[in-house]
Amino acid sequence: MFRTSSKTTIGIIYAIFGILLFSAKAVLVKLAYKYNVDHLTLLLFRMVFAIPFYLVIAYKQKNVGFVKIKPKDYFWLFVFGFLGYYLASLFDFIGLQYIKAGLERIILFIYPTIVVLLSWLFFNKKITTQQSLAIFITYIGVLITFWDEIGLEGSSVYKGAIFIFLSAITYASYLVGSGWLIPKFGVLRFTANAMIVSTFCVVIHFLIQGNYEIFNYPKEVYFIGVVMAVFCTLIPSFLVSAAIEKLGANTFSIFGSLGPVSTIILAFIFLGEHISFLQVVGMLIVIGGVSIISKKKEK
């Protein structure tokens, strides 16, 4: 009982810090856009500045594994790396061109529902009463905040919302897949290789459609790229993978509700984005939902 409790507590800590660091990325992206950098180049900076760390980790972990790795496992690693850190990030960066950072994180919160549905469809995982209650409560908060944001943003919000919704779908697919593959590869090995796959995809995409003027931006753009690479990509990617390993994809997904809360606060501080009374109410409701899922059921 003690070991299980300790494992859950550590998983919760990893999940919280991983989500908070990932959430800061949206604010940094919005700051970078003020220097007229396009979304693909900014995504390239994020991945390229982080890739040396992942290559070193992948090399050191190349012989680490808990079970025998089959060829199809590598295939699925490529698929989920493509979905989770390339496609999801690409859609996210595009969407952030049209909507505020706070609203971006609120829409992304849709992914817990998608995670639960995919887990039920493909892995026959039961949706518990506790998870259902937590999702219900947190989505009340999300809907309150989202409704108010539409009124504040105007028509441009819909275009950005579509891309962010696509990001939520692809990221949810990654979470479900990683929950299945991490036990086979181990946290470090899986995460490093998934990020290498996504970086490869970003580079190929840039070579095909990029503007190639990667050395002509203000120094602030490169600084933001480094910060995103280390503190909003490298560190949280391992924290999230470790949290999924300890909590499972379904339980971890509920902690995503912390994302809208932290992003709205950070966006208010660094971007001057408006926080309304309804947003405050929504954030409090979201926090209530997270507290429910954090409580361990008595056995």
Automatic annotation (TrEMBL):
The keyword DNA repair does not apply. InterPro entries: AA-Vitamin_Transporters (IPR050638), EamA_dom (IPR000620), EmrE-like (IPR037185). Keywords: Cell membrane, Membrane, Transmembrane, Transmembrane helix. Its main location: membrane. One of its GO terms (cellular component) is plasma membrane. SUPFAM superfamilies: Multidrug resistance efflux transporter EmrE. Residues 10-146, 159-294 form the EamA domain. The keyword Membrane applies. It is a multi-pass membrane protein. It comes from the Bacteria. Pfam families: EamA. It is found in: Cell membrane. The chain crosses the membrane at residues 12-33, 39-59, 74-99, 105-123, 132-150, 162-183, 190-209, 221-240, 252-271, 277-294. This is EamA domain-containing membrane protein RarD. It comes from Maribacter vaceletii. The lineage of its organism: Bacteria, Pseudomonadati, Bacteroidota, Flavobacteriia, Flavobacteriales.
